[in-house]
Fold this protein.
Amino acid sequence: MLKAFKEFAVKGNALDMAVGVILGASFGTIVKSLVDDLIMPPIGLVLGGVDFSNLFVTLRDGAAPGPYASLAAAKQAGAVTLNVGVFANTVVSFTIVAFAVFLLVRGVNTLRERLEGPAAPKQQACPFCFSKIDVRATRCPHCTATIG
């Protein structure tokens, strides 16, 4: 059993997946810092000095009545809050990660197309009725003509 586990763990796919998970976690940390430290502060400044990390709505006061100076103070008092700013930061982070993954997949697909060449066509035009038919068809389903 140990031998089988070693073979699995040393295979390229398992190692590639482990590296991907580790890099993905690190990338998430970088994106979080990018959003929290570089993107949201200027947006908050443009919107009148709003600190998004402390943008919240108090649903119910805690032990000490509000208003609270910060989200940390509200949580310390035990208040129930809607953390709108934290959610906004998370949405921006997700958008950045999703866009980065999109660019990565798009780049890999472009590279794959260049290496493999264009894909073989899957459809052809019937020479009689010009309908699109499968390239493997021997008879047109539209006009019933025999295809060469």
Q: What stands out?
A: The domain at 2-50+83-117 is CATH 1.10.1200.120 (Non-ribosomal Peptide Synthetase Peptidyl Carrier Protein; Chain A).
